[in-house]
Amino acid sequence: MTFTKTSQKFGQWADSRANTVFGLGFSSEQQLTKFAEKFQEVKEAAKLARDRSQEKIETSSNHSQESGRETPSSTRASSVNGTDDEKASHGGPADAHLKSENDKLKIALAQSSSNVKKWETELQTLRESNARLTSALQESAASIEHWKKQFLACKEENDQLRNKIEELEEQCNEINKEKERNAQLSRRLQELETELQDKELELEELRKQGEIIPQLVSECESVSQKLQAAEKKNKDLEEKVVTLRTEVEESKHRQTNLKTELKNFLDVLDGKIDELHDFRQGLSKLGVDN
């Protein structure tokens, strides 16, 4: 089994024997580092216990083989000794050797029992390590579910924040438009203030002019009187002009009549002159004839 750190808060637990891979999530990088160190520690402890068990099994196997090789000779010795005992009424040295071999077998059996107890202890340690790893795996799975829920909650909160940002952007656009309108109103207000100042200046000038209004009124009255006199004089002149026009018309009419009478007189005079000329010619002819 191996554990690989994939990011600041996530890792992978791979089991090549079971051909499985688990993804683990943690609330902080410190917890991830602590879990990785604990995993490596348990893995090394399990490997060390496995190596020790293998060494002890090999040692016990070698010892058993040596005991097996010695057993036939002992059996043969016991059978021989038994025969000798039967023949020699149980001799002392053979019994001592057999007792020594039995003591060695007891010691080997005691060592084997001790090794079995140690192996059971190490097996229990391995089981506890596996239980801790299983518990850690379950906690990691629960942590993954917890992080999934937090991720969904964060995603939902992110969507809400995005919608809120869009609303705020719309409000900012409205605020910018309102600022632009306020700027226009400010410019218009400045223009109105300028116009008001101009009007105040004009009003001040009118007030100054109002101070000389009585004098102007007096002058206007004098001018009005003069105007009335001029109008009266003008009226008299107009009447005279009408009279003169009438007289001129009458004079023109008389001149026209005179011209007509003069023309008639000239015509008559021309006739008389012609008659006189004819008369002279007649007289001339008469004088010549005489």
Kindly report the average pLDDT value. Answer: 76
Shape: rod-shaped
* Fraction in helix: over 70%
Order of helices and strands: EEEHHH
Kindly report the oligomeric state of this protein: single chain
* Strand order across the largest sheet: 1-2-3
Gap from first CA to last CA? 194 Å
Q: What is the number of E strands?
A: 3
Cα radius of gyration in angstroms: 77 Å
Q: How many helix segments? A: 3
Strand content: 5-15%
Secondary-structure content class: mainly alpha
Region (Disordered): 44-98
Coiled coil: 102-254
Cofactor: Mg(2+)
Domain WH1: 1-46
Task: Describe the secondary structure blueprint for this structure.
Elements: E1 2-5, E2 10-15, E3 20-25, H1 29-88, H2 92-211, H3 213-289
Antiparallel strand pairs: 1-2, 2-3
Helix pairs in contact: 1-2
